[in-house]
Amino acid sequence: MGNDLPKIIINCGDPSGIGLDLIVFLAEKPFNASITILANKESLVQRAGLHGKKLAFQENVSLHKGDGRLYVKNIHYENDVIPGLPNKHNSKAQMQMIDHAVKECMAMNYDALVTLPISKEILSDSNNKFTGHTEYIAKLSNIKNQEVMMLVHNKLRVALATTHIPLSDVPKTITREKLEKIILTLHNDLKTKFKVLSPRITVTGLNPHAGENGEFGNEELTVLIPIINKLNEQGCNLVGPIPADTAFTPGHIKKTDAFLAMFHDQGLAPFKALSFGKGVNITLGLPFIRTSVDHGTAFDIVGSKEIDPSSFYEAIFTAIELST
């Protein structure tokens, strides 16, 4: 393995979901990287059988040639993995898998982490609510509440000011301090990771019509506009706040390096309408590269011909691109 070959680690996600199916497909797709998979070998072989395919496992990691072979670090689950039927008893192993991958990336043993879908419901219990990969990985990386979730498809980039929280909590969560940190993380990562010299960031309003001068809410006047003005004076290139209902039109997209939406569905509904199945989820602000697919576990189509690996392949391509 050459020293210049990007080293990617892939977490299979919930083994009852389509993560294992996607890894089966990956065995036949070449990538210019060394790829390490975290998954259960026996379950992978069984899933390959549902697709009429056979897998072979490599003893050592090397260039991923797409010749039907995978380098897999075997994961043990408490209960048998049943396709399409998630099992809470297997949640501990899933969490340990994430912990291991992040620890390895923090130790710089890998250049990037690619994650496949997990079930927040399966990984949550009465004492501990699992809000998502993004937040959990940020916590493990010691940057809790500083991470930024961004979805990417070609030149369309949509970042979020808030992620997996109730809509009722959004206004009080978007403080001046938090918004400033998010914008600076987005600005800096666009420059360093995406090589955008002077990133033009379009910020959406929180309220309908971006508040219309306080007519429909005052967060734009008290939080968004002061921070946008402050950061523009410091050299950022921010536009907004503009009404979210007209932000994602061709004219704005053409002139924007990244959008910053105020809450999850405000940004992801238009993003997925424009690019579903092709997008990549990237966590900004981490000390390493982390990408993921733009979809969920899809328990209902496990083992079927309906599965589209496009987003998974794009997540790997993006991880390699950002690592080099």
TrEMBL record:
UniProt-listed SUPFAM superfamilies: Isocitrate/Isopropylmalate dehydrogenase-like
InterPro entries: PdxA_fam
Pfam families: PdxA
Keyword line: Metal-binding, NAD, Oxidoreductase
GO molecular function: 4-hydroxythreonine-4-phosphate dehydrogenase activity; metal ion binding; NAD binding
Biological process terms in GO annotation: pyridoxal phosphate biosynthetic process; pyridoxine biosynthetic process
NCBIfam families: pdxA
Protein name: 4-hydroxythreonine-4-phosphate dehydrogenase
